[in-house]
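Quick one:
INPUT:
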């Protein structure tokens, strides 16, 4: 497979990220450990980010227990013949990450050929800069990577497709996201129960 200079750099950064990555459980343990010291992940430490991390810690614990993958997606995902690493760029204070990482973890548990690894955005700025969304460092960002062929299979994030459309529509109408939108998005996440995220990721693996 022929790689461009930019692509080779991205692959090297992915490999560096994997060497400095966390499992899903290790990521949750890190957040919990930092919270015990009134800290959050990331290079910037503020009371607001710590509070977000505390909320997200509770949210992820709840979702780990309540998220159910629909039968058709479960069957399709578990039957996929694939060897891949799902490398997610994240931070503990990120609300979208807290909503989607538990879903991604549930999916990965269905297929022994897929491994989930998580890296912190602020510790991997160069990697993040290779996977921007509309020029921004939006997270979470999932990189589907085949370590055997050194190939980026696909990317996903920072939000499931329906939520992404909600963001687009709200910005078009109001110019920017505000507190009301964040409340609306939270309501949507609660009602969706991870279905859109699971469907999105399955579709990407089918491409």
């Amino acid at each position: 497979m022929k790689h461009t200079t930019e692509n080779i750099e991205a692959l090297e950064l992915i490999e560096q990220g994997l060497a400095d990555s966390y499992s899903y459980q290790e990521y949750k343990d890190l957040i919990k450990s930092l919270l015990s010291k009134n800290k959050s992940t990331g290079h910037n430490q503020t009371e607001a980010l710590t509070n977000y991390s505390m909320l997200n810690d509770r949210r992820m614990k709840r979702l780990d227990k309540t998220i159910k993958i629909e039968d058709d997606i479960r069957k399709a995902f578990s039957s996929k013949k694939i060897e891949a690493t799902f490398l997610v760029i994240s931070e503990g204070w990120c609300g979208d990450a807290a909503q989607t990482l538990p879903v991604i973890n549930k999916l990965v548990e269905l297929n022994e050929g897929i491994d989930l690894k998580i890296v912190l955005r602020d510790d991997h700025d160069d990697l993040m800069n290779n996977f921007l969304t509309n020029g921004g460092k939006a997270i979470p960002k999932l990189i589907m990577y085949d370590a055997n062929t050194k190939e980026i299979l696909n990317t996903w994030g920072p939000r499931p497709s329906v939520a992404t459309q909600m963001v687009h529509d709200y910005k078009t109408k109001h110019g920017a996201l505000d507190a009301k939108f964040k409340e609306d998005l939270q309501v949507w996440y609660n009602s969706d129960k991870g279905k859109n995220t699971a469907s999105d990721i399955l579709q990407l693996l089918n491409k």
